[in-house]
Amino acid sequence: GEGVRPLPGLRHLTLKFGKCFNITSMDALSKGIAAVTCLQHLQLSFEDCWCLESFDELSDVLQAQTRLQDLRLKFSNCRELTSVEKLAQGIGGLTSLQRIQLDFGGCVTLTALEKLGIGLQGKTNLRHLELNLANCTFDAVEFLDLLGKALLALQSLQHLESHFNGCTLLSSADTLWEGIAELSN
Q1: N vs C: which end of the chain shows fewer Cβ within 10 Å?
Q2: pLDDT tens string 48-87
């Protein structure tokens, strides 16, 4: 917010807000992160922040972090989150990423993850991808199709970990398996 000065030497930033039940927005935090212009590693944890409704503000901030190599976002059990569209746009612009960890396990109102699959496409430097969508309450077939297609282009990927346990509406993962098979060739 106001009075935030740039921190040109800061390369690693970890902020954990687990079980802060009354947080509804990331607006002020996003403004603070925007003042840190040379981040290489960013970890934000909002696990069990039941009232967090949106992280849209984070999108523009992420796009400005052109040196970011390691992004870890944990939003498990954030019951009010409904869309990752803006976040996917932010991730889409991060060309230097080598590691992405996204945890949306237990985000029971989250839908339309297709944009996230699109945001992962073109990450040629990505070596480590970890996704947790455990207990999702939607049919993630379209997302898995896009993720499978993204995997085809991730030639540097060395580590892939995905959690879909408890996704009772998931009906197929065929394209994901095809992408994984292509990685091993």
Answers
A1: C
A2: 998 988 888 888 888 889 899 999 999 999 989 888 888 8
